Request: fold
Amino acid sequence: MQESIEPKPKPLKSTSEETSWRKPSIQLERESSETDDDGYESEEYRWTPHLKNDNSSTFRSDNSLSPPISPSLLGITQPRSFTLASRETEQSGTSSQSLSQVRKFTRKIGTPQTGIFTTRSSSLNRQASESSVRSGGFLPSLRSNHKGFTTPTSPLAMNVRMGTYEPLLSGNETSIQMTFPHYAFFSELGENFVSKVISLTETRRIFSSTEYPNSFTGAEAVFIIRILLPTGLPEGLYSKVARALMHIRPPLIIPLAYSEKSQRRNTLYNSSSEVYDLVEETIQQGIPQGIYTPLTPCYTNTCLPGQGGCYSYSCPNRDIDMSDTSDKSEKSGGLKRRDSAASSKASSYDATLSRAWSATVAKEVLQSTPSAEIGRQEAIHEIIYTEEDYVRDLKLLDELYAQPLRIAPCIAEDYREEFCDNVFNNYLELLDLHTKLYQDLRDHQSLCQSQDNSGFVDRVGDIFLRHLPGFMALYSRYGPHVVLAEYAIKKETQDNILFQNFIQNTERKEECRKLPFRHFIILPVTRLQRYPLLVGAILKKTPEDHPDKKDLLECSNMLKAIANKMDSETANTKMTLRIYQINDHIRYKTGEPHDLQLTKKGRKLLYEGILTRRSHMVVESTELRVFLFDHMLLMTRERKGNDGEDEYQISKRPIPMELLHVQEATEGFSIGLRSMASTYPNATSPGLNLGTSFGSHFPILIHHLGRLGGDHLMYAESAEARMKWKHKIVEAKIAMEKANSDREVFTIRSLRDASFIGSTGIGSGANHGKVTCSVPFLGATGFQMIAVGTVSGIWMGMEGDTNDMQQVLSLQDVCQIAVLEEEHILMVLADKTLIAYSLGALDPKSPHKTNEKPNQKVAQHISYFNAGVCNNRTLVIAMKKRGTDSHFKAFEPTCGDLRNPSNAKYLTTKTGFFSKAPSWFKIYKEFYIGTDSFAVHFLKARVVVVCSRGFEIIDLEKLNLNRNLPDLNNPAFEFVQIRGEDVRPLAMFRCKDHYLLCYNEFAFRVDNHGSFIEENYSCLTWEGDPQAVAFCYPYVVGFDSRFVEVRDVITGELVQTLAGEHMRCLQFSSDALTPIIHGCMVHPFKPDYQYIFQLQAKFAPTL
Reply:
C-alpha cells in the first residue's frame, strides 16, 4: 500500500492558467439513418481511423494557486483513502469560483484511485453529477494501469489518476498530470471486450459453443459494451459501438452462419437469436487502432454537454438539426471519407455545379456567340464530360468489383476465375480504349482553350475516327455477352449468400452513388447505344461547310453499324441464355439421369413449342413442352416449381439428332435427298396418313431409332404448326450434317431403285418377292454387273440400270449367292441346296449366251455357306446341321476357269445313262463343332465359325489346334457371360494388331493372345439391335432393321447413321482391296418398292 499523502496548499498566483490541447485526426464516413433494435435512431458511421498523436493533455498549474478546493466542488466522488486538508472552501460557496480556480487545486493522493470527475459549472450539471454518484459510485475503467483524461462532461465521466507534484520551471511549481479515459479507443475497447467475452463463455454455454467456443449473442455483446462504457449514454449508442467492432478493418466480430439476418444485412442486432464470434486472426495480429468519435469529448475546455455545443464543427455536444444539416455542411465543409483514385469526386458528379458548356465561359462570350454555335459547343462538351464519366465508371467496375472478386473468398477458388471471366469479359480492353479516347478529347479541348479565350472546340470527328475501328471487335464481344453475365450474377446471388453480401456491401459505398452492380455491367451497352445520339446532336448543329461535317457523318454510320452488329449477335446470346435457363430448370426422373450437354460451347436452341400426346384409349391428352436443340430433341412436362418458376420434367428419353427420324420429313436423308417427303406426290405412309387431321389436332410421328427408343405419335395444334416442326427438324439435321461433314464416311449408292416390288406391294410390275442377297461381278462385256437373289429366283443386270434387270434363274427360297471370280462360277443356296452355275451361261450380256445353264449340285441340307480364300486356296465352306452339332465341309474347285475352252468338258451334260459329268469341286477338309453355329468367316490362314459359344478359330491344316474366343473363364469377359443367351455373336474381324469381336449388343477387342483390350474404350455398345455387321477398317457397320450405324473401332464413337425401313445386309465381301457392302431397304419415297444400295466408302480403306 502506498502512503496517503496530503498536499500542502499553495498561494494563488496572478498569472493566468496555461492549457495545451492536442486534437487527434479523425476520418469517418456517414451512412444512412436507421433505427436499431433498441429504438434509437441515429446515423451509422464507418471508420477508417487514423491517430496522429496520443489523445492526452496536461494541465499545468503554478504553486501560487488559491487554497485547495474540495473535490466535492469538482464533482469528485471521493474514496475512503482521500484526506482533505480543509472544507472551508466548499462551505464558503463555490459559485463564485472561476473555472481556472476550480481546476488549479493542489492535493496529493496517497493511494491511486479512480473516481468521477465532472465540472460544476451550473446547477444542472451538479444535479447530473450527484445522480451519477448515487447511481453507481465508481464506473469501471477499461484498464487500471492506463491514465485517462477528458474534457469534463457528465455522461463520459473521467478517470483521474493523480500523482505527486513534479517541479516545472521553478522549484515552487508543481504539476498534476491527468489523461483522457480510453473509452473511444478501439484497441482498448476491443481488448476489454475480448476479455469479457472469454470470461462469459467460461461460465455459460449456448447451442453454438461446441463448434465456436467464443460465440456469443447480440444481446450479450450489447450488455458487455454497456458494462464497459459509462452510464448515462443514449441506449442506442451501445448497439452502435458493438457494430463498430464488427465494421472495423479487420473486423473483431463476425456473424455465424446461423445468423442469416446479420449476414444479409451485415450488421449486429441486439437479439438473443443472432449469434456472433470473435475473429481469431484479428486478435492475433492486434486489434486495429482508431477512435470512435461519438465517445470523445469536445476539445474546447469550456464546452460541456447540454449547452448546445460550441464553435467546433465536430463538437460532440452539438444538437444536430437534420433540417439544416446541408447548410451546416456547406459552412463547415462536412465530413468526407478518403476516396480511391478512380472514385474521387469530380465536378461531373457534383449536382450543385452546372455541367453545361455555357457555365464555363464568360457572359460576354455567350452574348456574342450565335445560338447555333452555342448548341454545337454544348453537344461537344456533353460528349466529352460523359466520356469522362464512362471511363470513371469502368475504373470503378475494375477497382470495386473485378479486382476484389478475383481474390475474394466468397467464390470457390476452383470456380472463381471462370466466373469472373464470364461476368467481366473484356472490360479491361474497353477501359484502355476509352481512356485513350477521352485523353485525346480532353487534350484537344485543352489545346483549343489555350488558343482561344472563348474556349471553342473546333472538331471531334477526326478523333473518334481514329478510335472507332477498335469498337467493332470489342463491343461485338462484350455487348452480346452481357445477358449471360447478368444471368451468372443472378444465379450466384441466389446460391451464394457470401457473394450476395459482397455485392450489397460494395453497392453501399459512396463511390457507387447508390447505383446497383448491374449498372456497371451493362454500362458499355448503354454507352454504345448513346453514342449515335451524342454524335447526331453535334452533327445536327454542324454547318454543311464545316470541316468536321464529313468526319461526323462517317462516325455516325460506323456507330450505327457497330450497334446493329451487336444487336444481331445479342439474339444468339439470348438463345444461349434460354438454354442455360432450361438447363437449370430441367428435372430428371428418379434413376434416369441424362447427360444433356446443354452448356457445351456453341450449343443452339432451334425451336421450342407445345405438342400433345394422347393415351392409347384417347381418353386424356398431355401437353408436352418440346425443345429442338442442334444435337437432340427433348420432350418435357412443364410445371411450376416451389419458387414459382417453370420446371421441365423429362417425359421421354432425349432423342439424339443422329437417331431422330420424322415420318414424311426425313426419309430422303439416307439416300442424300434433303427435302420434305411431302413434296413427293407418290409418298404415302403405310398404316397412318399423317397428311390428314384427327379432330382439331394434326399428327406428327417421331421415331427414336435404337434399342432404347420408340415411336412417339404427337399432335400439333394446326397444320401450319405441324409443317413448321417438320421443317425445323429437317433444317436441324441438315445443319448437323454440314457441321459434321467430316464424319460422313459412307454414302449410299443406288444399285436398284424401283426394280423389285415388295412382298406386299401393289405396284404395276411383277412381284419378285423379298430381296435376300446380292453379289457384284464383272460381266462378259467388261461392265460391272449385279446378281440379285429373291425368294422366287435370281435376276441379273448392270449396276444402276433400273430397266435392265432380267430373271436368269427361277428358284425358290434363294438365301445366299456368291461368285468365284477365277473359276467364273456362281454359287447359289436355294431351298437348302448348294448349287454351282456357270456364270457365263447366266450373264444376259454375254455374246455366247445359250439356253443351256450348266450347273452342278455341290451339297444338300445346307444351312449356310461362304466362299473365300484361306492359305491361298479358294474354298467354299458349307454347314450342315446334325442334331446340336454343326458339320462343315470345305470344297475346293478343281474345274478351273469355265470360260477357258480347255475346261469345256465341265460344261457338257452326261452322254449316256451310266456316264457321269466330271465334278467341279473336291472335298478339302471336314470338321465339326458340338454346338449351334450361325456363320463362317475367312481369315488369312484360318477360318472363324460364329457359334453360340462365341468364336471358334479353326486351323484347316491342324484341326486339333482349335481355339475358342473369348475365354469366358477370364474375369475380364464376365460381362459377356452375365448376359448369357441375351447376346448373340455376329462376326469377328481382323483389326491390324488385334481382333474385333462383334455381338448383337456390343463389340470389343482382343489381342493375338485373346486378352481383353481397354485402350480408348472397353466396350463398344450398339445404339440399335444389329442383325448383321460389316467391316471396313477403321469402321464397323451394324445393320439394324430401322437404320445403319457406323462406328469407329479406334475410339468407339458413333460417327454416322443412315435411317430406313426394313434395313438388311445383302452382301459383305472383304476379299477385294475395298470391301463390298450391299444393303436393302424400303424405298424412301416409293414404299411399295425395295431399294438396293451399296455403302460406298468416302475414305481410302486400309487393311
Remarks:
- The first strand starts at residue 18 and ends at 20.
- The two ends are 109 Å apart (CA to CA).
- Confidence is low (pLDDT under 50) at residues 1-180, 320-353, 677-688.
